[in-house]
Amino acid sequence: MKWLKKIPLAWHQLMKEKTRLLVAIAGISFADMLIFIQLGFNDSLYDSATQTQSLLQADLVMINRQFESLSTLQSFSRERLYQTLAYNGVSSVSSIYIGRGEWKNPTTRIDRTILIWGIDPNAPSFAVPEIQQNAKRLQLLNTALFDRASRPEYGAIAETVEKQGSVEIQLNQQNIRTIGLFRIGASFAADGNVIVSNSTFLKLLADRKSNQIEIGLIQLKPGTNSETVKAQLTANLPNDVRVMTPQEFAEVEKYYWESQGAIGFIFGLGVVVGIIVGIVIVYQILYTDVANHLPEYATLKAMGYSDRYLLSVLIQESIILAILGYIPGFLISLGLYQVAAAAILMPIGMKVERAIFILAITFIMCSISGAIAMQKLRSADPADVF
Fold this sequence. Notes:
Blueprint: H1 3-15, H2 18-54, E1 60-64, E2 76-77, H3 78-83, E3 90-104, E4 111-119, H4 129-134, E5 143-147, H5 157-164, E6 167-171, E7 174-182, E8 193-197, H6 198-204, E9 212-213, E10 215-220, H7 226-236, E11 241-244, H8 246-259, H9 262-292, H10 294-302, H11 307-344, H12 352-377
Helix pairs in contact: 1-11, 2-8, 2-9, 2-11, 2-12, 9-12, 11-12
Keywords: Cell membrane, Membrane, Transmembrane, Transmembrane helix, Transport
Membrane topology: Multi-pass membrane protein
Organism: Chroococcidiopsis cubana SAG 39.79
């Protein structure tokens, strides 16, 4: 516990120049805030890209073998999905159509592309209470559910539905009545979502073949091992389809966007810049402290204190700066997350693992600065004191 005795000395050194201390705290807070924002947006983009797949109400999912992302839709024959019913453990199946349509803003009359999901109202689709509660109402032709978390460019649909119960809009130049709302959110693939029945979907996209689907949902009997069934289906079905869990399906989408390279590189670069900024600021503070008090450090060395001891004092100062700088950076980032989530309508929030990770980075960042500043401390010569 000897290191505890060094804390008063380290704190005393920092408090000698309160203005410099405040500047250091502000600098570290800014660096932490920059890292928080970069990682927050990075995670938010990937979470938004995979949230739809994660909400699928199925034990197993079937997709086209060539499927890469919802942004590059690939269909397959529904016959493949029905073939799974011949296997032990499979209870039922249902299908989902996915397509793009032109949604006309009822106020501005401007068209905007929206992602259309065609579901069977009588079968499982999404594990979203609002969708499950309103699914039966979709049995009426030309009715739809609108994603309340869609971009505002689609119009004040959610507000109108909440006030009036429904609103008539134009989708693919056809009149559709929006009778309910749900929440999934915008993503890489689309700025908005609308859910209709499979019958309405095929009416809206007349060029689509009814036997060509984008997603097959497979429900298993209670107690059935999904990995066993997945292995059987993978081994026996033709290789034009893939069978996986909803979580694995989400990973396929995430991998597609990660493999594009640009997104991860941009946000990764922001993190690196934040770390460099933090190291430079803390180094400047500690270096200036050492330079201004070099005679005092030389006196300590003359009294028998080793460089190792003095380095530990600098590290203590670094840790204190890390803690003092991290707290406001963390709190400001919480507020910025709320502002960003409201502005971009995408899921962005603080995660415990991210908070711990950045705290560790802050400690490492400040410790590195202390170690670099030690080079100046080594030049403290006891002979200069006498």
